[in-house]
Amino acid sequence: MAGLRLKKIEKVYPNGFKAVHGVDLEVRDGEFMVFVGPSGCAKSTLLRMVAGLESISGGEMLIGNQLVNTLPAKQRGIAMVFQNYALYPHMKVYDNLAFGLKLAGTPKAEIDARVKEAARLLEMEHLLDRYPKQLSGGQAQRVAVGRAIVKRPEVFLFDEPLSNLDAKLRAAMRVRLTELHQALRAQGRPATVIYVTHDQVEAMTMGERICVLKDGTIQQVDTPTALYERPANAFVAGFIGSPEMNLHDVQLQLADDGAAFAWAGLRLPLPAAKAQRLRARGDSPVKLGLRPEHLAAQPGAPGALPVPGTLRFLEHMGNEVFVHAELGGLPFIGRVAPEALGELAGKQRGDAHVFHLQMSACHAFDAASGVNLLL
User: Fold this and answer.
1) pTM score, two decimals?
2) In terms of CATH architecture, what is 4-230?
3) First to last CA, the chain
4) 3-state secondary structure of 42
5) Peptide bond between residue 338 and the one before it cis (omega within 30 degrees of 0)
6) According to the model, what pLDDT value does residue 35 have?
7) Of the candidates 245, 255, 294, which has an alpha carbon nearest to the alpha carbon of residue 278?
8) Domain definitions of the chain by residue range
9) Residue 341 in this model has a pLDDT that exceeds 80
10) How far is it, in rounded angstroms, from Cα 155 to Cα 30?
11) Does domain 246-366 have CATH number 3.40.50.620?
12) pLDDT > 90? residue 83
């Protein structure tokens, strides 16, 4: 396997539109890296540039230690799994897996060994004599992955490979692909993987590190836990997490006894450590950030701040309840266990209630740039 390095990579189309803006990124040898972001953020464009399917307008791209800017796709040592799988309908699964190796002149015995090894890894030995039309969506997806595995590439590229599957199968395939990556590593064949998705749940559950993209620029690259707990800016904070972080424009107010977020007559004092880090800004507009799990329906967490508000509605999700509330005229969402609703369980839309906010877990972002001011 090999790592991948992008140095000031740019993509400019003939009409002058700049899709990728000076991307710097290192994907480590054997790492499972996920590119995530909203539609139009250039994540698939960047992947296609790695694959050699899109030209590079500026910068340098290296696979291992080899500069590949002008290297044809077939010489880059990559294998790509597309969204639509692109299986040959007239060939059985075995021949779909073997076709690329046959074109490369691989000996027949080695082809057979590689195909059967891939089928074993993906638990699809029983599918080798079937045609693509006889496969379910999940089985066809496994064949597409197997076709990549038999090539033994330097880098695996996945372009939203699960987006055509239903929710249950998509969850199962997330597990299968993650286990496959771990199995190859355990066998001494660590696979360098770049996986593109718009689904932040896929990103959080599969990626060892995640690259969050917006408008052709990298917003943050880090582990799923670090992205969730220490987002670099308001965009990352709002994109990572489901339900998403509560984000609102408020006023930072300083006083002799500390600092507070204020809006519409509400004043939420900040813990001393956070107040100290924000004092240099003075009274100024900021963006408050609070994860749903840090808004509770009743007292519990030490230091939680009681805040009066009104109930909008409750979403019962089975093992948890999403509490939609209004605090000082702004909408907030909380995530609580059903048994932690307390008296809120019997209230109706518009009823007053005192909610409890863990201000020790809050974030403050610059109102203009969105930069996290508490990192």
Assistant:
1) 0.91
2) 3-Layer(aba) Sandwich (3.40)
3) 35
4) coil
5) no
6) 97
7) 255
8) 4-230, 246-366
9) yes
10) 9
11) no
12) no
